Amino acid sequence: MCRRDPVSALGAAQGALASPCSCVLAVRSPPTAHLEVSSELGAAEGLAGRSLRGREHTELCPSLVTRCRHFCHTRVGAICPLALLHICCLVCVTWRVCRDPGMPWGPPASPPSSRRIFIIWAISSWFRRGPAPQEQSSAGGTPRAPSRNLFPKDTLMDLYVYISEHEHFTDFNVSSALFWQKRDLVYGDWTSGENADGCYEHYGEVDISQSVQQNGSIYIHVYFTKSGFHPDPRQKNLYRRLATVHTSRMINKYKRRRFQKTKNLLTGETEADPEMIKRAEDYGPVEVISHWHPNLTINMVDDHTPWVKGSVPPPLDQYVKFDAISGDYYPILYFNDYWNLQKDYFPINETLQRLPFRLSFCPLSLWRWQLYAAQSTKSPWNFLGEDLYEQSDEEQDSVKVALLETNPYLLALTIIVSIVHSIFEFLAFKNDIQFWNSRQSLEGLSVRSVFFGVFQSLVVLLYILDNETNFVVQVSVFIGLLIDLWKITKVMDVRLDRENKVAGMFPRITFKDKSTYVESSTKVYDDMAFRYLSWILFPLLGCYAVYSLLYLEHKGWYSWVLSMLYGFLLTFGFITMTPQLFINYKLKSVAH
């Protein structure tokens, strides 16, 4: 619902900004270009304020930016500033005057605002930009004509929802398969329903068979027909192809459940659940289990954009379906489970006979649908494998929860700190490389500390790989290890001894202290510092190893060694800075 009348807001924005960009383009472009760009701007305004009742948000026409770049003769990325201002003002006005139309996914109390969805979309869009859609032509070389929506505005519709174990549904005569039927819905109606937001809701329980209990799939089939028609093709008198829109999807979700089989290496005892231990023995350390979420929303996008087949930008092209004969497109149906958090899924097993299911139907604006579609796509991460998909889902959940539950000021501070931390980490890498790359003398520098740094980075990398940590963290640590290994070539003369080969096959790597390090007193002080340091570190390491072995559980001896070394370095790693301090003290200088 709107905070104030969106008619006057959108009208004022469009009226105030109607002329400037077109005038400027008229000066810089020929008359035909002026007319074409003006029509494009008119199309963008129409998309921004299509419904005078505030039913539409904004949508940037994909071809508008391209045409502005062409006719204004500007470079790529520098579109006409007034055209950009013209569109952005309409976006901002619509965004500020309209609230989120409500939570279309079920009963939770406080709906997330559109601006929070916009924040998620804006951040991820930097990493999900695809190539601009190419304008398609027909076989004869002429541009394809724009299509129209097969369901005009205010079309009366009937909704049929079937639930089946079959991906392709034909059991229209089975009454138990019909989960929900709703007649005389109005396409583009935002004022009906219990909450006067155009939304309807139905709750029921889904009977499941033994096949579904044992990791089988279950599908939802949604049909919208024009009022008076039926979705069953076998009913010739009541079925019309162009009057029926259908979509389906699997509504259970397969998730991997990993079991970390840990135990006390001395006693063999574990605090893990015995049932989980048995399942791990039967199914292995990774088990694929079907999960269920009790909420799902069916959105019908209130959109009448003249899409051109082949020119719909991704990822929207996955949802816009064109009729092969008429060339027009069906209403866009979207299964909205964006706010279904991973923690709310529960496993389907033999103890469940029925599954609770709350299904909602809501209209959806084109602008919000674009946000949801952009967030739902995972194609840029295909090369990372399915394991990264699950990590991505969990990370998105943490972002959603943070946006919904965190104080806005604290959230802004967290984002700023995270950005500053990333910048500092990059600068640290850069300055570290610059320092060692330009270093000519090693006087006053602890060479042993460089080798110890390599050991630390290697332990951390092996530990996070053993515990399947976040991929981004793994990359960051790996880059740090490469930099530490490169430093060795700067503090020592590294040579390949091809005469004395290892196992008679591989050249032997030899290390020799640089002359600037040996000839100065730095080497003496460095050896002395590490000798004193070993008197403290080795007893502490032994005590921590005994404690870890007696009181903590581990997957095996390899994991124990890694976790013991990692925990020790986290606890006492700061002591390794003392050799450089000792050298500075002995040389009475920090100028080096």
From TrEMBL:
<dbReference type="GO" id="GO:0016020">
    <property type="term" value="C:membrane"/>
</dbReference>
<comment type="similarity">
    <text>Belongs to the CLPTM1 family.</text>
</comment>
<feature type="transmembrane region" description="Helical">
    <location>
        <begin position="409"/>
        <end position="429"/>
    </location>
</feature>
<keyword id="KW-0812">Transmembrane</keyword>
<dbReference type="InterPro" id="IPR008429">
    <property type="entry name" value="CLPTM1"/>
</dbReference>
<dbReference type="Pfam" id="PF05602">
    <property type="entry name" value="CLPTM1"/>
</dbReference>
<feature type="transmembrane region" description="Helical">
    <location>
        <begin position="471"/>
        <end position="488"/>
    </location>
</feature>
<keyword id="KW-1133">Transmembrane helix</keyword>
<feature type="transmembrane region" description="Helical">
    <location>
        <begin position="532"/>
        <end position="551"/>
    </location>
</feature>
<dbReference type="GO" id="GO:0012505">
    <property type="term" value="C:endomembrane system"/>
</dbReference>
<keyword id="KW-0472">Membrane</keyword>
<feature type="transmembrane region" description="Helical">
    <location>
        <begin position="557"/>
        <end position="578"/>
    </location>
</feature>
<protein>
    <submittedName>
        <fullName>CLPTM1 regulator of GABA type A receptor forward trafficking</fullName>
    </submittedName>
</protein>
<feature type="transmembrane region" description="Helical">
    <location>
        <begin position="449"/>
        <end position="465"/>
    </location>
</feature>
